[in-house]
Amino acid sequence: MEAFTAHTGRAVPLRRSNVDTDQIIPAVWLKQVSRTGFEKGLFSAWREDPDFVLNQPAYQGASILVSGPDFGTGSSREHAVWALQQYGFRVVIAARFGDIFRNNSTKMGLLPVVLPAETVEALQSAVEADPALEVTVDLGERRVRWGAESAGFEIDDYTRWRLMEGLDDIGLTLRNADDVTAYENGRQPWLPTTV
Amino acid sequence: MGRTLAEKVWEQHVVRRAEGEPDLLYIDLHLIHEVTSPQAFDGLRMAGRTVRRPDLTIATEDHNVPTLLGPITDPVSKTQVETLRKNCAEFGVRLHPMGDAGQGVVHIIGPQFGLTQPGMTIVCGDSHTSTHGAFGGIAFGIGTSEVEHVLATQTLPAYRPKTMAIEVSGELPPGVTAKDLILAIIAKIGTGGGQGYIVEYRGEAIRKLSMEGRMTICNMSIEAGARAGMIAPDETTFAYLQGRPHAPTGEQWDAAVEYWKSLVTDSDAVFDTVVEIDASTLTPFVTWGTNPGQGAPLGTAVPAPEETNDPAAARRALEYMGLTPGTPLREVEVDTVFVGSCTNGRLEDLRAAAEVLRGRSVVTRTLIVPGSMLVKLQAEQEGLHEVFKAAGAEWREAGCSMCLGMNPDTLAPGERSASTSNRNFEGRQGKGGRTHLVSPAVAAATAVTGKLTAPADLA
Ligand code: SF4
């Protein structure tokens, strides 16, 4: 995983609530067995509309998505995270996220930033007024900055540390393999096996 | 202070707890399917890792499989299924492939084999893993990185969610089902209402539900945003489990039941949030919008956006759905009816649909898709397939089918369905398709009239 400390880029406002993962990447794109090539599927149904915000020239190259509340609800598909990253996003900002999506994001190094709904709207308006506006998301300081404005966000220490170090979760867990073995030795005898 | 059911099950599975870190949780059962696993197996291979506990892992083919007999014709779907077979063979994981008597939708086969038991932790790269919580365990959906983590370590790092009680008092009136209840709950608390919570469904109406009904309820917990849903085990749970292939037997059974009986929320335990709902006031419930929280009683009309809690979203949804505010829901015309999915693809669901269709004919394209090969077999032993065929419905092979349209079963753009599945998202059942979520009984009655209909409306 690529480490995330701070990122500065342009933002794109997505003024929709309940952006479910079926919209982020429709099911037909899930048939691939590789981890690449998902950028083409990102919001593919919505992108057919020339007016859709991602199609507007002013927002090309933006790397921060600023969405309405309940972003990433629904299906567990991590493909949604891959699609966003491969399209070029490093950060998604919203007032609320689907739990599984938020988990998947932090495993992959896509930073989900929770800000109050009014702050998200203020940021969306600022970006709409000036699409070239630079937005900085500073994970070290837990703060988003744009123009003269800034807003703090919360993220737990452990996830922040893991993201800033770019650490692989599996490697971390395997350091505690002895604990796992000890636990396994005490499991209840009636628990089923699949064999 | 006492503990909730969720806290008891969670604590039982903590492998390691350290200040400032998420708990490391042991996973008792890992379910796998073809869509969310290929990249996880790839990751293992690249890191030279193995599957730690293939004996706690089971795989099935469900999302891509055609429900008409014959091979997969879509080359991309075929590759995905073949990749799963190759991975299971290489890593020693038990697989139920297409055509196998044990094949079916991942959340149907776990309970059916007796692999899903009270007090367990169960995960799957699929958000509807919450289904298994109906047996009193903690079951939740995970992403592909986490699938890889569980394959490699049989554990997951996780923070314990908050707890929510949904207290359902009273009794469901005749003709009102578990599906109507969960749709009403989601409409009440919203698609984000459960975010960050494990929900425990409690109360008289829940106790009276069958295991099938409880699974329908827990299945849709994720549609309210909840991490998991659970119901305390009781005699209904034990009766369902006894004698299933992987259920304990003899002395182990007795020991297990004794432990399972302790899996209830203590009377002095405190939930972080409590929601109350009276089941006796409910009527058949349907969705009108493009998320499962946009629903209303069938006897009402398509709402005006301003009447809803998110007018902008409602306006967009009504435009997508091609609906005008004020239209009675009973007048909404439907082209296709789908009975199936991990929400409502079990035997009891098929019985409910057959009861309505017996001696009647359908006027819409009607797909009846059993949730597993075993459900199909049992339905055929009861002659349900004859009822469906006589009514003009299509009787299919087991799989996810039109729940998400990864196989050939899809809606055409603008087509409208009444579906017993769990998601009415834009394009979920096919690009441009319009979905109304309903119970199996309402689905069957709708197939008879071509408009959203409850069985009680039929002469
Ligand atoms: S039936 Fe639908 S919701 Fe259930 S596992 Fe299959 S695709 Fe997912």
Automatic annotation (TrEMBL), chain A:
What protein name applies here? 3-isopropylmalate dehydratase small subunit
What family is reported? Belongs to the LeuD family. LeuD type 1 subfamily.
Report quaternary structure and partners. Heterodimer of LeuC and LeuD.
Q: Which UniProt keywords apply?
A: Amino-acid biosynthesis, Branched-chain amino acid biosynthesis, Leucine biosynthesis, Lyase
> Which cellular component terms (GO) are annotated to the entry?
3-isopropylmalate dehydratase complex
Name the EC number(s): 4.2.1.33
Any one Pfam family match given in the protein's UniProt record, by short name: Aconitase_C
State the species of origin. Planomonospora parontospora
What InterPro entries does the record point to? 3-IsopropMal_deHydase_ssu, Aconitase/3IPM_dehydase_swvl, AconitaseA/IPMdHydase_ssu_swvl, IPMI_Swivel, LeuD
> What is a single molecular function from GO for this protein?
3-isopropylmalate dehydratase activity
Gene that specifies this protein: leuD
Q: Which reaction does it catalyse?
A: (2R,3S)-3-isopropylmalate = (2S)-2-isopropylmalate
Q: Name one GO biological process term.
A: L-leucine biosynthetic process
Aconitase A/isopropylmalate dehydratase small subunit swivel domain: residues covered = 1-117
Role noted for this protein: Catalyzes the isomerization between 2-isopropylmalate and 3-isopropylmalate, via the formation of 2-isopropylmaleate.
Q: In which pathway does it act?
A: Amino-acid biosynthesis; L-leucine biosynthesis; L-leucine from 3-methyl-2-oxobutanoate: step 2/4
SUPFAM superfamilies per UniProt: LeuD/IlvD-like
TrEMBL record, chain B:
Assigned keywords, A-Z: 4Fe-4S, Amino-acid biosynthesis, Branched-chain amino acid biosynthesis, Iron, Iron-sulfur, Leucine biosynthesis, Lyase, Metal-binding
Give the enzyme's EC designation: 4.2.1.33
Biological processes annotated in GO: L-leucine biosynthetic process
Reaction equations catalysed: (2R,3S)-3-isopropylmalate = (2S)-2-isopropylmalate
Q: How is the cofactor bound?
A: Binds 1 [4Fe-4S] cluster per subunit.
Top-level EC class, please?
lyase
Q: Cite the PROSITE patterns for this sequence.
A: ACONITASE_1 (PS00450), ACONITASE_2 (PS01244)
Please give the SUPFAM superfamilies that the UniProt record associates with this protein. Aconitase iron-sulfur domain
Name this protein carries in UniProt: 3-isopropylmalate dehydratase large subunit
